[in-house]
Amino acid sequence: MANAPLDVLIIGGGVAGLAMALEIADRRPVTLLRPGVEAQGASRWAQGGIAAVLSPQDDIEAHIQDTLIAGDGLCDEAAVRFTVENGPDAIAWLLSLGVPFTPDPEAASGYPYHLTREGGHNARRIIHADDATGRAVTDTLLARVRAHPQIALRDDLIAVELLTDDLGACCGARCLDAHQRPHDLVAQDTVLATGGASGLYLHTTSPAPASGEGMVMAWEIGAELMNLEFQQFHPTCLFDPQGPPFLVSEAVRGEGGLLLNVRGERFMPAIDERAELAPRDVVARAIDAEMQRTSSDHVLLDIRHLGDAAIRHHFPTIHAHCLTRGLDITTQAIPVVPAAHYSCGGVATDHRGATRVAGLYAIGEVACTGLHGANRMASNSLLECLVYARSAARHLSEPAPGRTLTPRPSATTGDRQVSSERLASLRQRVRQIMSARVAIVRQDEGLAEARTTLEQLESEFHDLTRGGAASVELHACRQALTLASLTVASACTRRESRGLHYNPDCARHADPTPQPSRQIKPA
What we know:
Layout: E1 6-11, H1 15-24, E2 30-33, H2 42-45, E3 50-51, H3 60-70, H4 77-85, H5 87-97, E4 115-116, E5 126-127, H6 133-147, E6 151-154, E7 158-164, E8 170-176, E9 182-192, H7 213-220, E10 224-226, E11 231-238, H8 251-254, E12 258-260, H9 280-293, E13 299-302, H10 308-314, H11 316-324, E14 334-343, E15 346-348, E16 360-362, E17 367-368, H12 380-395, H13 420-437, H14 444-465, H15 472-493, E18 518-520
Parallel strand pairs: 1-2, 1-9, 2-6, 9-16, 15-17
Antiparallel strand pairs: 3-5, 4-5, 7-8, 8-9, 10-15, 10-18, 11-14, 12-13, 13-14
């Protein structure tokens, strides 16, 4: 089913998608796809805050250097500088929209809002809304989007493929509705804001993480993917096998939280001089190693020494949530475990969000801008969403002249119903092999096993779906299999341990500025 041509189509309604919609809608009409499941996506669950140089005691160069160090030699310095320099203006924009950041009552701090510190940062530069920053920013932006007359917000369609014309340029997206009926949304410019790939793993920090669907959609029409091997695991997800995932913010360690093993012993000071405030890759590996050393399935994050009043003041959301799980963090240490959290790789873009495919842009976690390198520094993610969304909006303020919007016809599909249970089983097996062999520590033998297993799963998928009718579940399963295979290939290609890619069979990197690994779809 074809629809009337659109001007700007944004796929994804987290912070990146919402911010770009607001920034461009005064100049060009926008259609924003935001399926209901995105209310549980990564943006809303971001707790810690947004990193930016806001304090008189901080400076741009310090934030740049901290980011470069955390990225372990793989950051694009120009991208880091662009992001950091545009950070203060992005925060000012959010304040102008009414985001309720937490005020700082101490006049001596020199900034009216409270700034906390997180791993990798050598200054207090994380502005936050208590411990629910993602929710506060998302809710504020969403309210503004709903009120804007030039933004059509649609929650009834899910994009499953991108449309291209005879020249290979992107011209919109093919979507499915709740009844699996196709709808082609033809558009002058298409923007992916679909999130990362943490859903490829069993344990994640958000209830409904993406599994790289947008990355694969872009790759299938010729966009370049890079750095897929750098999947970040947040060191501290609440350990509760019977309950849903829940992130315990890095700000907890920033305010003095200590990591203990199950015997009550601190272990981070012996591993890194920054102790609990070392970058995430260091802390996650340390926790993983300590769990193996003590034959335990979690470690402990202890903030009891901060006192009841400070805990309730700084971490009301975490305190209230843990109480619902039978845990009082004012009197009990928090059981935590690393969980898949953020994809540092994705669709390669420039500082305008442009991909190598004409008419296609990517912003937020789906994109790889070069900011994060081999390891994202805490609270740089929402900063990146805002800076690149606003940059892309400025670039696209006027449509490209002379574009014809004639998408190529879609491939025919069958009408046989494919079992949802079988597809769900395949997805679960992808998560199992990725978690077992391509997680915090990966080795050559395990990567080879993962490659073989994924090839078998792909064969099963094709046998199962041959002649099958298109469905959201079918496309999602295919995309998860594809991205998992590409991620394993990237991990096999990198013959060094660097940042989030830790392989004991490879030496620790010696070259400080290697070229990032890339996967490019053949012509």
